[in-house]
Amino acid sequence: MPSQTPNTKSHSLAPEDPFAVLPPELLQAFTLHLDDSPALLPLLLVSRYWYYSLIDTPLVWTRLTWAHKAPRDAAVRRLERCIRLSGAAPLAVRVADGYGMHYAATAHATGLYRLRAQMHRVMSLQLDVAGDASMYNLLRQLDVPVPLLRRLCVWNASRQSDFAVGPMPGLLSAPNLKMLLASNLPLEFVPADLTLLKADVSSDVGGSQQLEAVMLRNANTLESLRFTGSPKNIADSQLLGTGCTYNFPALRDLEVRGVPLGSLLGHMRAPSLITLSIADVGTLASFDLLHSLPCLERLDVMDFALESNPSRQLHLPKLRRISVRLGISTTCNILTQVRAPLLELASIEFGPGVDPNADDNETLHHAMVALVASSPVLTTLWYAKVTGKRTGVVTRWEVDVDEFREHIRAGDCDAREPRHHPPPTRPRGLSHAQSA
């Protein structure tokens, strides 16, 4: 029965003890709200029922954190006890160093030594380094074979750049490593055959040629890919040939922001994509990627140049949300060519350097009419303008979609002879200014 205790010793509780009636499932649910297993140790003192329930459940002791600014022997003892209580269950370990701790310090070195001895059980590992701490020194302590490792997070915010000292053959050569989340990790350390890759390449960790090589190395297995960075720190390249096509058969989520990968994105084919977000990627060769996305549900395209506008219709049968912030000509062309019968929300935005004139407004109006006419379930259409380059203040107006449809049915929105000029706005749809 759920209300029965896992150990008969807990029956010695007094009948009036309120904790004696809590089922073990509820007690385990409480433990999920704690960050790490050492935080569970005070719960052992609540009652004998809690004590025996927790020590008989190894899985609640598998989340280990070693992130003490000045670890003491008591912290080491807590860590050792959690390791013992976890039994042989796989571990999720987080190690943080933001203070440049001396690795010869007895308590800190002992804690890392205890974790190093358990690396053969680690399934998820997160390493956080900041300030004067050294990521390489931390990796050197833990770089041992990890046969069960599937998820590795490396957040490197250190002021020291010492990765050139040597590679990490243990961690990044784990046979089961499938998920890598990294910040400022040199690209030569990224392994192959990943299913999830999220990397912040804001620092100068390599050019777009290396980023392309990382993507192609994982092309057959990637399911989720996210690159964020700063184009000022990443040199663009034209590595890929114009006649090449690169297939990513398993890719479902793709986000590239601030990384000049237009040469590769223009030649990608990812038929399983569900979400696609491209922003500030330099110059995109073409939108051929959008012609083979039967599963795409969300599309965000912002702040890049397009060598050639779409010349044929973009059939996106499952698209539900689209956001466009490009040049006027490109934006209008995309809105005109999109055919999305399930589209529910559309957002059109122009940056501070774009100031539409009367002719541009008329062209944009045609595109909005075409979008509304081809999207029978569209309920929300936003028109936005960035009014300050430095402040990034965005002012949005909501277009009355129902009014648009009434004019279309009445024949007042003929694409050849428009009678209304955009942006069609209504005071009730005017939103407050927002910071981008």
Helical coverage, percent range: 10-25%
| H/I helix tally | 10
Task: Give unreliable regions as ranges.
Answer: 1-13, 414-436
Strand count: 21
The largest sheet is: 15 strands, mixed
The fraction of residues in strands falls at 15-25%
Instruction: Please give the radius of gyration in angstroms.
Output: 28 Å
Strand order of the largest sheet: 1-2-3-4-5-6-7-9-11-13-16-18-19-20-21
Derived structural class: alpha/beta
Q: What average pLDDT do the residues reach?
A: 78
| Apparent shape | elongated
Task: Tell me the distance between the termini.
Answer: 54 Å
In words, what does this structure look like?
The protein is an alpha/beta fold and 436 residues long. It has a domain at 316-436. The protein is built from ten helices and 21 strands. It has a 15-stranded mixed sheet with strand order 1-2-3-4-5-6-7-9-11-13-16-18-19-20-21. α8 (328-337) runs parallel beside α9 (358-373). It is elongated and about 80 Å long.
Give a quick precis of the structure.
This protein has a domain of 121 residues.
Identify the notable features of this structure and list them briefly.
22% helix; disordered N terminus; two-stranded parallel ribbon; 436 residues; 15-stranded mixed β-sheet; disordered C terminus; alpha/beta
Topology readout:
Blueprint: H1 24-31, H2 48-55, E1 63-66, H3 73-85, E2 91-97, H4 106-116, E3 122-131, H5 135-142, E4 151-158, E5 179-183, E6 196-201, H6 208-217, E7 224-229, E8 246-247, E9 253-257, H7 262-265, E10 268-269, E11 275-279, E12 283-284, E13 298-302, E14 305-306, E15 314-315, E16 321-325, H8 328-337, E17 338-339, E18 345-350, H9 358-373, E19 380-386, E20 393-399, H10 401-410, E21 434-435
Parallel strand pairs: 1-2, 2-3, 3-4, 4-5, 5-6, 6-7, 7-9, 8-10, 9-11, 11-13, 12-14, 13-16, 15-17, 16-18, 18-19
Antiparallel strand pairs: 19-20, 20-21
Helix pairs in contact: 3-4, 8-9
